[in-house]
Design brief:
- The chain is an alpha+beta fold and 89 residues long.
- The chain has a domain at 8-52: YefM-like fold, CATH 3.40.1620.
- Helices cover 30% and strands 17% of the residues.
- The protein has helices spanning 16-21, 23-33, 79-88, and strands at residues 12-15, 37-41, 44-49.
- The protein has a 3-stranded mixed sheet.
């Protein structure tokens, strides 16, 4: 059962002077928590720091699909390969 009490999370606001002094820490906090921060000057918003959109994960399996070419018969060994096998026996 999900209960929604109608609470809206307020965006954290910091004055521009504090943002200037702690810019790197604020950016790291936004990155870690994924919660935006509003920067204000004289109580009025001047900027919002928001986390970047999540990047799509690169798929490992099948990433080379369609890039290879088949030259000749892949079932039977080529004559030079068979000759090399016979030579090594």
């Amino acid at each position: 059962m999900v209960v929604d009490h109608g609470t809206i999370a307020r965006m954290k606001e910091i004055p521009i002077s504090k943002f200037k002094a702690t810019c790197l820490a604020v950016l790291e906090n936004v990155r870690k928590t994924r919660r935006p921060v509003r920067v204000t000057r004289f109580g009025k918003p001047v900027a919002e720091v928001i986390p970047p959109a999540p990047q799509a994960q690169k798929q490992i399996l099948g990433f080379m699909a369609g890039r290879g070419k088949i030259h000749g018969d892949i079932v039977h060994a080529t004559p030079w390969l068979e000759a090399d096998r016979n030579r090594r026996k």
